[in-house]
Amino acid sequence: MNPAAAQAANMIEAAHADPLRPAYHFTAPAGWLNDPNGVGQVDGTYHLFYQYNPDGPFHDRIHWGHAVSEDLLHWRDRPIALAPSTGADREGCWSGVLVDDDGTPTIIYSGRADGRELPCLATGSADLDEWTPRAEPIIDAPPADHEITAFRDHCVWREAGRWRQLVGSGIAGAGGTAFLYESQDLRSWTELGTLVVGEAGDERLDDPDWTGTMWECVDFFRMSRGADGATASPDGTSDDEHLLIFSAWHEGHTLHPLVAIGSYDGRRFAIDRVQRLDLGGRHAYAPQSFRDESGRRIMWSWMQEGRDDAATDRAGWSGAMAMPRRLWLDENGYLCNTPVQELTGLRTARLRPTERNTTGGEPGGLEFAGTCVDMEFTAVLGAGGAVEVELFATPDGAERTVLQLRRDAVGLGVHLDRSDSTLAAGCDTSSHTGRIPGPGQRSNVRLLLDRSSLEVFINGVALTTRVYPTRPDADRIRVTVHGEARIESASAWELSGTEETGRALRP
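The structure assignment produced for this chain is given below.
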């Protein structure tokens, strides 16, 4: 075996031996994974392209990995779609999208060369396995009449018989933005100006809803309200609400994904409101969505790591995808997201709870055990009532992650405490907080645990994070109620793993 092949085999072996590697969330065979790219469904098959470095668990010389599935759960690796060439992407093939150009699969992506990113194009075979990149970028430079903070990542659609493209960017002193372009053929583009400009200022760094100084991974579409509301490409003649999802970035730091909701006239987007897309900040980053063949708007996002580079280097892998989620606008215009229905197909054994007592001897909650778990319950919270859920907990509490829901005078608040989540050094143990909109005392809660990942869904609000317990007995799930609160309909299931056997770093 040559040295390169031996190194790859060792990295894969290390990755698959890591007890913190997710069992049912999508990961690369080994090495580095970040943004989901080119997500879509073609002739019944789901395609997931993603930012990938097969040479190691670090961000360098990014390729496009590729996997396919029929059920959004079980994925098969395909050959690497894009790799750095000698042209405009010689330093990396960064994020982009997949479109159908009159029967020709086409990728629009950011090629990196000479320290900057420019829009590039590649055409593919009918099975999406073989790709031919164009040597030159399709846009030669960012707009010259602005001082640009960055210029990358794309959203492409057809509107009024022409192609439209957004490129994520930022204008120094003004804030994040996306530049709008138009084309007849995907290869020659005319700039139409900024779609909308956000807000800047370092004084806003402590604001969890701040839109940043650059917008990455822009994703633009329209949607009607209601759980069964229609979703479609942007259309300046439609009265539907339009949604712009982007990831707020500031001076090299990934902040959080946000969604702006408003109206679009074909040239400009007027923002009516902005909301957090996930209360976990950077741990559900760089989302990209698509409309599947059943009409659902499905979103992928990147679960960033929360342990240091030394730990990921030893593990041989970095990064996973959050579970695919269905998006919809509720009747009040709030963008909700929940795991796709297909996830229930991974449920195996139903976990049996044991009853826990409070210090006064009265029943105070429930206890389960597991680290690959899908759990659901309804929390009924009166004024001042709270529910506390310990996750990935050891029997003695030395390691534990604590989720708390509490109803106060304002409404329902959520707090996730990671301060005791691990005994390992070099891990992010900061907390997450947020508010759950809507009146009423009943909250539907769903928890997805997968070794080092945690996804929480409360009435359509998501909170995604990463935790790294070190002890093998950190598998307790304890639910406790406080004050005017009770738990109804609590159920939990073990989830089966989905990783394809015999995975390799495909050329």
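Interim note for the steering committee: The radius of gyration is 23 Å. The helical segments are 3-17, 309-315.
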